Amino acid sequence: MEQDLTAYGPLAVFALAAALSPGGATTLATSSGVRFGFRRSLPLLMGIVTGMASLGALSGAGLAELLLAVPSLKLAVQAAGSAYLLWLAWKVATSPPRHGTADLARPTRFGGSLCLLWLNPKGWAVTLSAAGSFASLAPDAVHLSILLGSAFAGAAAVSMAFWCAAGAALARALTTDLHWRLTNGILGVLLAASIIPMWLER
Questions:
Q1: What mean pLDDT is predicted for residues 71-91?
Q2: In the prediction, which pLDDT does 67 show?
Q3: What's the count of helices (H) and strands (E) in the chain, helices before strands?
Q4: DSSP-assigned states of every residue in 119-144
Q5: Which of 35, 77, 87, 93 is paired with 135 by a 20 to 30 Å CA distance?
Q6: pLDDT at position 201, please?
């Protein structure tokens, strides 16, 4: 049993590295932590975790390969994902300074963050790569789907909690309107820039 558990180590490392690496989801989690704090960001975080879990599960079942094998479908997903990320980036960059109850903005909801994952071909490619690399850990597609879904869910939960908590901690250092506007602008630019690798990896 110990040897079997050890065999899952590389998958855990792979999933955690993919989830922790900077990108649209991590930037959005950080921005939400800055803007709304950890507790109010929980629906967004749960959407991202669910999205990563579903991508892993569907890749294990072979559906990600179908998506990435159809150029027109991949292009449509890529374009929709880019448009959505640019809209989110604009919202983040133009957010006003937070002033307690005067801030009536609402954080991105569960469905919005779930869409962020589903409309990101890079996420599909990463989980598809995991399905190919770690297929030997499961006896069939059903078990592989469960294994990858669980691995990416756990990795995403750790990653999103870390980035959101980092954003919430950063917010304590923002003491002036200028600090808030600069931070929001930088996070908005980073979120928009996360689209670039999506189009370079073709």
A1: 86
A2: 72
A3: 11, 0
A4: T-HHHHHHHHHHHHHSGGGSSSHHHH
A5: 77
A6: 63
Determine the pLDDT at residue 5. 64
Tokens, residue 114: 């779930």
Measured distance CA(139)–CA(199) in Å, rounded: 35
Q: Is 201 left (phi over 0), alpha (psi -120 to 50) or beta?
A: beta
Rounded to whole angstroms, the Cα distance separating 121 from 78 reads: 6
**Whether 85 contacts 194, CB under 8 Å:** yes
Q: d(Cα 21, Cα 165) in Å, to the nearest integer?
A: 16
Q: Give the integer Cα–Cα distance in Å for 151 and 36.
A: 28
Q: What is the pTM for the complete model shown?
A: 0.86
Q: Is 70 left (phi over 0), alpha (psi -120 to 50) or beta?
A: beta
Give the whole-angstrom CA distance, residue 17 versus residue 24. 15
Distance, CA of 179 to CA of 173 (rounded, Å): 8
Alpha-carbon span 96 to 180, nearest angstrom = 8
- 3-class SS of residue 98: coil
Residue with tokens 């790569």: 129
Q: Where are the domains positioned within the chain? A: 2-200
Q: How distant, in Å, are the alpha carbons of 43, 107, 108, 110, 142 from that of 113?
A: 8, 10, 7, 6, 26
pLDDT band for position 140 (cuts 50, 70, 90): confident
Question: Cα–Cα–Cα angle for 11, 14, 17, nearest 5°?
Answer: 145
Q: How many residues does the chain have?
A: 202
